[in-house]
Design goal:
Helix content: 25-40%
Distance between the termini: 17 Å
Shape: globular
Radius of gyration: 20 Å
Number of domains: 2
CATH architecture of the largest domain: Orthogonal Bundle
Bound molecules: zinc ion
Structural class: alpha+beta
Strand content: 15-25%
Amino acid sequence: MLAPVDSNSQKKMRMPEGHVLHRAARLQGKRFNGHALSVSSPQGRFSDEAKQLDGQTLETIFAKGKHIFYRFESDDTMHVHLGLFGKYRLNKPPFPEPSPNCRVLMETDENQLHLAGPNQCRILDAGEVDDVLARLGPDPIINASGDREEFISRMHKKKVPVGRALMDQNLMAGVGNVYRSELLFQIGVHPWRKANELDPETLGELWDQSVAELKAGERVGKIVTVEPSDVGAQKRSELTKTESLYAYKRHGDPCRRCETLIRHADIDGRNAWWCPTCQPK
Ligand SMILES: [Zn+2]
């Protein structure tokens, strides 16, 4: 059964995947870590919390999966989940006027961070942060010791299509709809194969591919998965936007490796894309 093609098809409406949050944490951290911040909420929906944080030194910004955390000297931590509409802007002086929907404005003399439209934005204590982190599966960008084994073990217990399991943030944190289709294409696994029927070697390969691709996405700030030689190029940086993906939203177009037409179908309300030849059932 075919679903309407990705109702979130406008680029602006795409849910950011883990690489976006890790990159935001790294780039914002360079500007704000170790600084006392002026914090306000021009929109007003975060005013009490902003008062609590105002004037405190920000110790660190870190991400896990699609969540980002700002830990202040008091151990108060601002937790943000951007969702579909959340958007950051980093500004240099002279700072522009904040927009009326600016939930959080953080400033030093040199830098301004403007956050609008997050799905979640709240202050957590240390225990609550641990609870959020504990609910998330291993994150391939963090790739801590033991994460690969943990991922294989969690996936091996799931009698659901691997295309669904990959979107479950409790099993792997950070993968969204684009990486799901691309990673499964790259390892040659059909999205409807049951996760528990994949052997440990294949699951290990899926983890390793996720580490490589999400880290690359974090470095360049976009998702480019295509091997340059598959489109007659030398380097990934040479690929145009329409050459950057193998499967995602390419239904009806020929596979870049075998020319079979890419297909798509709905899993839990979100389309998944695959090549029937490169990813046999
Ligand atoms: Zn193919």
